[in-house]
Design brief:
Blueprint (H helix, E strand, L loop, with lengths): L5 H13 L9 E2 L8 E6 L8 E7 L8 E3 L12 H7 L9 E11 L12 E8 L3 H11 L7 E6 L8 E6 L31 H10 L23 H10 L40
Parallel strand pairs: 1-6
Antiparallel strand pairs: 2-5, 2-7, 3-4, 3-5, 5-6, 7-8
């Protein structure tokens, strides 16, 4: 229904506050645009087991560069995944399967006008899976990364294929007043509803046939007593329309645009004595 009263509104707000979802918690994307840009971050990782990985395909500009999880197992590149099969056949509108790691962070950016650091905001840093080795090194040296503030520096201009990122411990800013230690924004957070979509084989095949993912799923007739009200899938609707000489119009899929942040300030690069007495990590 489109109309509601104040009591209805209060109930919705109460439920959202009691059980926040990705829609209620605004988690952005970490991005440094230019060579030499820096940011202060607190990394929400105390163990390698907390890192989240995924193998994804990135679609082209026509679909706003959205990313879809690959159906193949790690290390396998069979026709099990229709996107992999398309790539193997030479389709350039679909990116090759790539392994990613998603790092949860709180980040503080410098306000270019005032020179002050903003209040820390929650972000996801998407990096190639190999970046997890850098996280492993930090865990070896500093243990619980949530307890420290680091400086991330971009090395490489926009568009450069050689862009890298360095991470340094910054004792000057290593305090809760700089970046909060509250990671509550990531409670109930689901990376597969934020940075990429998980689609079934049927949904991917529908996309390849129609240019869009289905918005509704077919409901088996045996599960419905009202057979005339059974919702058909877009693939079924397309088949009916083609039989009747009609043309189905594709609906572009939504995507979340990365957030552009202001330039942060340079800070000290002094490091404390490293702790090598913790666990050993290997890759």
């Amino acid at each position: 229904m489109s109309q509601f009263n104040y009591s209805d509104y209060q109930n919705v707000v109460s439920r959202a506050q009691a059980a926040p979802t990705n829609n209620a918690v605004k988690v952005g994307f970490f991005k440094l645009k230019n060579d030499g840009d820096e940011a202060l971050v607190r990394i929400n990782v105390s163990s390698l087991d907390e890192l989240q990985f995924a193998t994804v395909h990135q679609l082209g500009a026509a679909h706003k560069w959205m990313k879809i999880s690959c159906l193949n197992e790690v290390g396998s590149y069979s026709d099990t995944c229709p996107f992999c099969a398309k790539v193997a056949a030479g389709d350039t509108s679909i990116g090759k399967a790539s392994k990613k790691v998603y790092v949860q962070m709180l980040v503080s950016y410098k306000d270019a006008a005032t020179g002050q650091f903003s209040e820390a905001i929650p972000v996801i840093w998407e990096r190639p899976a190999g970046f997890s080795r850098e996280i492993a090194n930090l865990l070896r040296d500093y243990q619980d990364l949530k307890a420290h503030v680091f400086k991330v520096t971009r090395n490489g201009a926009t568009g450069s294929m050689q862009t890298t990122y360095s991470i340094a411990y910054i004792p000057l800013y290593d305090k809760p007043e700089t970046i909060t230690t509250d990671f509550g924004a990531f409670t109930n957070f689901k990376i597969n509803k934020h940075s990429y979509w998980e689609k079934t084989l049927e949904e991917i095949e529908t996309f390849l046939a129609t240019g869009s993912f289905p918005e509704t799923e077919a409901k088996p007739a045996a599960e419905s007593k009202n057979l005339d009200k059974v919702i058909s899938s877009p693939a079924e609707e397309k088949a009916v329309e083609e039989a009747l000489g009609m043309t189905a119009e594709a609906t572009p899929a939504p995507a979340t645009a990365p957030v552009t942040q202001p330039e942060p300030a340079p800070v000290s690069t002094d490091r404390p004595a490293r702790n090598f007495g913790g666990k050993k990590f290997s890759f």
